[in-house]
Design brief:
By secondary structure, this protein is mainly alpha-helical. The chain is built from nine helices and two strands. It has a two-stranded antiparallel ribbon. The protein is extended.
Length: 177
Amino acid sequence: MAIGERIHFFRTLRGMTQKYLGMAVGFPERSADVRLAQYETGTRTPKADLTAALAHTLDVSPQALSVPDIDNYIGLAHTLFALEDIYSLKVIEVDGRACLQADIFQGGRQASELNKILIAWREQAAKLEAGEITKEDYDRWRYNYPKYDTTQRWAKVPSKELSDALIKGLKKQRKDK
């Protein structure tokens, strides 16, 4: 799906008009809807800063707007083949059905990271199926990934300035004792 189609998808999902979204990202009122229509139809392609502004206004990750070309089955197939090459994604058969699996034994770190994403995705899908979260919560998780991902532990590291100040304060405190 091209970026223009993704912009259109999320804009309509959010109930926004082209004029509203265009103005929200800084286009003049008189041309906001025309500019957005150009991006949605693929006449123009937004640069990175505009993509970031659109994503922010639409409350999605910029990556949610820039997905590979999967508008047809051939494009989708080649996207999957590229995932096999890069992330050791394998197609396997389970109970007579084709399933995708990250081959963490052959693919190293890339496959391991993909596997973590797939597990996190499955966890959210299971919560949706069990009624523990709403479809809106599930979509928010998907369209902002990894912002709301709780399966991976991210450590916040203080800035160098703060770290240096803390160390300096601790050294001074030790001297004073």
